[in-house]
Structures are given as C-alpha cells and as structure tokens.
Amino acid sequence: MSWIRSFISVCCLLTITYQAQAGIVIGSTRVIYDGSKKEASLSVTNPEKDRPYLIQSWIDNLDASNTTKVPFIVTPPLFRLDAEQENTLRIVRAGGNLPQDRESVFWLSVKSIPATHKTDENQLQITVQSRIKLFYRPTGLLRNQAANAYKSLQFNRKGNQLEVVNPTPYYVSFYELNVGKSEIKEADMIAPKSSRSWPLPSGASGQISWQAITDYGGISAKETVSL
After folding, report:
1. CB 226 within 8 A of CB 207
2. CA separation for the pair 78, 81 (Å, rounded)
3. Domain with CATH 2.60.40.10 in the chain
4. How far is CA 213 from CA 55, 176, 177, in A?
5. Could you say which residues form the signal peptide (predicted)?
6. β-strands 208-212, 223-225 pairing
7. What is the pLDDT of residues 3-45, one digit of tens each?
8. Which of 7, 18, 109, 140 sits a CA distance of 20 to 30 A from 1?
9. CATH of region 143-225
10. What is the pTM of this model?
C-alpha cells in the first residue's frame, strides 16, 4: 500500500544520523543600554565539549519596514568561540538621534554557526539565530522607576476591546494579562507614552491582573485593578 511505502521511506530518512547542536548560551534575555554609559555588554558562552562555533551578531530596527540606519554597532561582529569558552559582545552607540524623553527599542541578533568536521558526513548541522530586545534608556530615566512602570498602566473597556495606556517613558512587556479568568494572549509589549487595544475574550469580566517582564528577564509581582 502507498502509505506503507511512504512510512518506510520516512523511516529510512530518519536513520540518517543527525546532530542537533546544543548551541551557545546567551547571558540575558534582553539588554538595557544605559545612556549614561559608553556601552552595554552581553556574554556569549559555548558549553559544548569539543565543537567551536562562529558567532555573528548585529542590530536591527524593531520595525522591519524602518530603513533608518541603526545607531548602534556590535563588537566583535564576527568571531570564533571555542569549546567551553566565553566571550563578551559589546554594544556601542554610533551616532543617530534618539528620543531623550523615553526609551527606544531594537533587535539584537546572535547567530551561531557550528564548525564542521570530516566525521560530520551525513549529519545535519543546525545554525541557530537568537533574537533579543535591546532597550536604549536615555540618561535621566532611572532603573528603579522602570521597574515600577508596569504599575502605572491604565485600562479602559471600549466595546469588546481592552485599551491599555502606558503614560510612562518606559516600555512595558507583559508576561501575562488577564481579565477575570480569561487571558489576553495577544498582549505583548506597549511603547512609552502610547496606548494599545486588544480584543476581550468572550464573556471576560472581573478584575484585571497582569505581570510584566523585568530588566533582568524575571517576572514582576502581580498587579490587579477593577475594570
């Protein structure tokens, strides 16, 4: 039968050995660039016992349609990371005009390309690209105020939409946002001094509760408010 032949073919393909790389370990899930400092840094570690990697890093605008030159560079942009070694990426400001009354955000990408050996024939080599957010925090915007920014969010019900207003100069990234027992799964990040709206789940009612992601990639305490 055709399905049996297909099944056998798949099984044969799966017998080809492959190696899924454990890959590099990035030291944080986000980077905060303090505008009063000359640079920000991010550690990159290769935990593998015998395989080096080629590490390539770069920064993009958050909005892919934004063609403005990114005002940061990563150094070194390309380097070899040997087994059981660590290196540090340094993010440096390279000009550009950024708002000084609020945060700006960019994408920091780190790609790991595994080295190949003669013994790797018939093995699948996997290139892994990690992408984390880079937040630029101008001088004068304090870290302790950023930690509490999520507490200042304002919520309004407009028909079947939940409007969220962020009056602060900081980005707020939701870990979770709930109305009663209903989670708003689309909720992600809200920019400084702006608002966003998300559809309310059918039948959602009760208190609003939310948690945010901190500067260190942790989860904040839960806040609640009546809608």
Report:
1. yes
2. 10
3. 2-137, 143-225
4. 27, 9, 12
5. 1-22
6. antiparallel
7. 434 433 444 333 333 333 457 999 999 999 999 999 999 999 9
8. 18
9. 2.60.40.10
10. 0.85
